[in-house]
Design brief:
Blueprint: E1 2-5, E2 17-21, E3 24-28, E4 55-57, H1 63-66, H2 69-75, E5 80-83, H3 85-109, H4 119-127, E6 129-131, E7 138-139, E8 154-159, E9 167-173, E10 176-180, E11 204-208, H5 222-238, E12 243-246, H6 252-265, E13 274-277, H7 278-289, H8 303-307, E14 310-312, E15 327-330, H9 340-348, E16 355-358, H10 367-372, E17 379-380, E18 389-390, E19 394-397, H11 406-416, E20 420-424, H12 428-441, E21 446-448, E22 455-457
The structure holds zinc ion (2 copies).
Length: 458
């Protein structure tokens, strides 16, 4: 069995991994880097030039996992494409949105190779995707398989928590079992239920380590954190301010809406206007449409109907004032320049009445990460094309990550005790912490940090 990390650095960027077993070749995920541009935003697909793929498997629809799928499909025209039906529906909407974003970047930033693919190509690509349910093994020809197929390679999706449609991927071949976690959350969120992962029988584990550099605060519970958020919203509104919540369109937006719904039900907060972005509306529609058929919490909650959010888009964002007593839950979560949350932040940052609440992960080098590290009163630059701003508004951080805590990842891996553990999807300090913990806890296991571009024998 062979494995190659196709990312360009050890980081959470354009996630993509090559896997070969039983004479078959596949790629797990093909993301787009959220911060890089042009060629640097792609995984290192050149490594695949003399390795024609049988299949591409997508764990979930976040762009750092699906964002370059049309490019890889163009380079690998014979590969079969597999994902869950929900990931296909969400992924199609996100890729079309990505075409629009890249087209804007071409105009505004002069990235000549953008867009990397077109709307037409995205449509043609999505026609070729094959949907696979959770818990049903299949072959790379797309046929149903049993769990004891022998030597041939089979694939099975399992529920990864994280966001709607997200799956971990079990690969069985040559009498061994390899498990790729994708992005995982073991705990229930407000809407998304925690992962259902295998607890034994895994020989090789490929594990994400997103939160490896952040300890869980002492005594942390999600309920207490939700209460802390409700109280902070109340305080911000009483001070006459509004709240900007930079959120991912997929996942965090719906979890935030779900929490606000709960706060109203629990009479912690009254009614107030909520604003979300156009892409978030599309994502939320999918959550609502699939509510009763997916494994989730609050299955009867129809978010759009219940919370009735106002919608902002790339045009209306420029003339919508920041008004007190309102929540602006806008993407992107990392506040990438030219996105709604970045543009709206200019109206919020210098006003001490207003607040910015972070509710999830942000890359330390992204504008959101830079803002989190800025001291009150300091200047902060969120967009190289705009003048810096003085940070006068309140900034608060809450822990509602869609990723497993590092403690729960270590617990899970200890219980599973695979012979080999490959650590991926983490910045260097996160990977190093996880490596040290697992190497100490499982002396009989080999813990590997796969060097980008280097072929490993698993
Ligand atoms: Zn994700
Ligand atoms: Zn990810």
């Amino acid at each position: 069995m062979k494995f190659i990390n196709l990312t360009r650095r050890t980081e959470i960027g354009a996630n993509s991994y090559y896997f070969e077993a039983a004479g078959q070749r596949l790629v797990l995920d093909c993301g787009m880097h959220p911060k890089q541009e042009g060629e640097e935003a792609l995984p290192n697909f050149r490594i695949l030039d003399d390795r024609p793929l049988d299949a591409i498997i997508v764990s979930h629809a976040h762009l750092d996992h699906i964002g370059t799928l049309p490019v890889l499909m163009r380079r690998q025209p014979d590969a079969q494409i597999f994902m869950t039906e929900t990931t296909a529906e969400i992924g199609s909407a996100l890729l079309h949105n990505s075409v629009n974003v890249m087209t804007r970047q071409r105009e505004e930033l002069g990235v000549v190779m953008y867009p990397l693919f077109t709307h037409k190509e995205t449509d043609r690509a999505t026609d070729r995707w094959r949907w696979c349910p959770l818990g049903q093994p299949f072959t790379l020809a797309g046929e149903r398989a049993s769990r004891s197929e022998g030597d041939a390679l089979t694939v099975e999706f399992v529920d990864a928590g994280h966001v709607l449609g997200a799956a971990g991927v079990i690969l069985r071949a040559e009498g061994r079992t390899v498990f790729y976690s994708g992005d995982v959350n073991f705990d229930d969120q407000t809407i998304t239920a925690g992962a259902v992962f295998p607890e034994s029988g895994v020989d090789v584990l490929i594990m994400e380590t997103t939160r490896g550099d952040h300890p869980l605060p002492e005594g942390f519970t999600r309920e207490a954190e939700e209460r802390r958020l409700a109280e902070a919203i109340e305080r911000a509104f009483s001070a006459g301010g509004c709240i900007l919540m930079p959120v991912f369109a997929l996942g965090k937006t719906q979890e935030a809406l779900g929490m606000i719904y709960k706060f109203r039900k629990q009479k912690l907060l009254g009614e107030f206007p909520i604003y979300i972005g156009g892409l978030s509306v599309k994502m939320t529609e999918i959550y609502d449409r699939r509510a009763l058929t997916m494994r989730r919490l609050l299955p009867r909650l129809q978010l759009l109907e219940e919370l009735n959010p106002f919608v902002l888009n790339g045009q209306t964002i420029h003339d919508s004032p920041a008004r007190g007593g309102r929540i602006y839950a806008l993407s992107s979560g990392m506040m990438t320049p030219k996105t709604l949350s970045n543009i709206f932040a200019r109206r919020v940052i210098e006003n001490p009445e207003h607040s910015i609440f972070f509710v999830g992960y942000a890359d330390p080098e992204s504008p959101a990460g830079i803002l989190k590290a800025t001291q009150p009163g300091e200047l902060v630059s969120l967009d190289p094309e705009e003048p810096p701003l003085r940070l006068n508004c309140k900034v608060e951080q809450f822990q509602f990550s869609a990723h497993a805590s590092r403690e729960s990842i270590v617990d899970y891996v200890k219980k599973l005790a695979p012979k080999k553990i490959v650590l991926v999807h983490g910045d260097m300090p996160a990977v190093e912490w996880t490596h040290a913990q697992l190497a100490a806890a499982l002396p009989g296991s080999e813990v590997i940090v796969p060097k980008p571009g280097v072929e490993l024998e698993l």
